[in-house]
Fold this protein.
Amino acid sequence: MKKTVSIFGGGWVGAPLAFKLALADFQVQVSASSAHKQAAHPNIKVLDFRAEPGMPEQAWVSMCESEIHIWAIPLRRKKNSEEHYLEILQDWIQQINPSITSKIIFLSSTSVYQNVSDIVTEDSEIQVSSLMAKAEAIVQSSKIPSLILRLGGLMGGDRYVAKYFSGKRNDGANCPVNYIHKDDVVALIAQATESISTGIYNLVAPQHPSKMEVGIHDCEQRGLPIGLWDDSQPCLGGKIVSGDALAERLNYTFKWPDPLEFPK
């Protein structure tokens, strides 16, 4: 019998993840978005669902009837968004039925770590007052086993480095980047969904060139103005986030290990 999974958030990561899991013979439910057409497959059911604060219990029912839940809804950039995000997460955790659901997966962020000039692993200190730390605490309060995946800077498709640096005055020229390509993000989440029940893992490409290196390289590749960079100052608090633990656990080989070689 096919395992069932609900993906809350059918956007930039959620839609291709739904397709990847469907190919692995999961029965997938994913909430509708502008990207849901990417998820077309007989094993995928796209539901008209949008998480909002204070929704009635009935509004959650259709999405909460799966063995595995994956939260892929990003923070919305608008007034009161942080408070609403945490409120929605709390509602989600309360609506999950432990007699049906065996695992919850929460897509977090490496921004949860302290900004230190060091290599950061899953055992490193986090900023406990940060939004993502509070969100992770809500997920971990559930009695259902949870898997927290901390994603680095997401790149690929319409998210490319030059888009953010071209023609601008940019800080932190010598700071390392902690990027990961969408192809690897989706593949890692899919494999973790199949084989890991609990834990906390970072999802970051294994190579960490400087922000200036990546910025100039991508602008040149795309024929865009490279922007203004000052590399005379050392990087202050430029952490390198290690994604080795998950890659080793899954015996995973990155498709795009070096941000300098991310495809156009």
